[in-house]
Task: structure prediction
Amino acid sequence: MITFGEKLPGFEYGERHGSYGIIVSENQLIALIKLPQGHYLPGGGINDNEPATHALEREILEELGFNCRVHEYIGSSRQFVNITSKKYPHIKVGHFYHATLIEKVCNPIEMDHQLEWHPLEQARHLLRHEFQRWALECAYPSAQNIELHA
Result:
């Protein structure tokens, strides 16, 4: 499995598995979640014994208040995440899928998660984690060759 980031010496890294969706609107914009720390693909942690597809459906409901349909699997990659203000060093293992929002059924419970829609090249540039950028590039290979013009 492809790995991104740097493992710091002297730390034990636990794995945290997550399921993430690449969601594209009718006008070809990519869904990103904006948090104070940066932009991420919609999705999050997988609970014990929870299928990755169910985790993605649950996370999108919690973050956005939408039911979703999970489509084909894109791939998996991982990212070393080093010490932040709240979390210990760990390895995020991401399982990535194409997904579609179906309908809004409730208000999101994660109020700090703001849904934003961006063109492919901008979404690629905004993603905070390399392992999520990799998934976007796997889903849309043309994103690898796009250069942003300021």
Q: What stands out?
A: Residues 2-118+127-144 form a domain with the Nucleoside Triphosphate Pyrophosphohydrolase fold (CATH 3.90.79.10). The radius of gyration is 15 Å. The longest strand covers residues 66-81. The helical segments are 52-64, 120-126, 130-139.
